[in-house]
Amino acid sequence: LLLACAPAKQIYKPSGADKAWEISGEFKDHTNELTIRINGAPVIKGTVDHRRGKDTLTGSYEGRAISTTCVSVANYLVPQEQCTVLVDGEQAAVLTF
């Protein structure tokens, strides 16, 4: 039985923002579906396909460009997804699923 990994999250305060953002995500390994959320709002939804190499998906939040690049990494021989989230081109979070 395959299950989705537990959600991952990190806190990030963008330059010029009054409040910090909670950046979270969920990856469903059986369908390769990725969802990235900021403060609970889905900002990126898509399918990760490593046959293309690194996979980059894009979206936006509060007028800012959001992107994530995901790679498959092995942790003690168990494959995991590692997604780097950028806000306006600046690294905001690294989420591992």
Offer a few descriptive terms.
97 residues
**Classification by helices and strands:** mainly beta
> Tally of extended strands?
8
Global shape? globular
Mind summarizing the main beta sheet?
A: 4 strands, antiparallel
Distance between the termini: 17 Å
Strand order of the largest sheet: 1-2-3-4
Order of helices and strands: EEEEEEEE
Provide the gyration radius in Å: 13 Å
- Low-pLDDT parts are 1-6
**On the 0-100 scale, what is the average pLDDT?**
87
Strand content: over 45%
Structure description:
- This protein has 97 residues and is mainly beta.
- Helix content is 0%, strand content 64%.
- The protein has no helices and eight strands.
- The chain has strands at residues 8-12, 21-28, 33-38, 41-47, 55-61, 64-75, 78-87, 90-96.
- The strands form two sheets. It has a four-stranded antiparallel sheet, with no helix packed on it.
- A hairpin with a 4-residue loop joins strand 2 (21-28) and strand 3.
- It is globular and about 40 Å long.
- The two termini are 17 Å apart.
- The model is unreliable at 1-6 (pLDDT under 50).
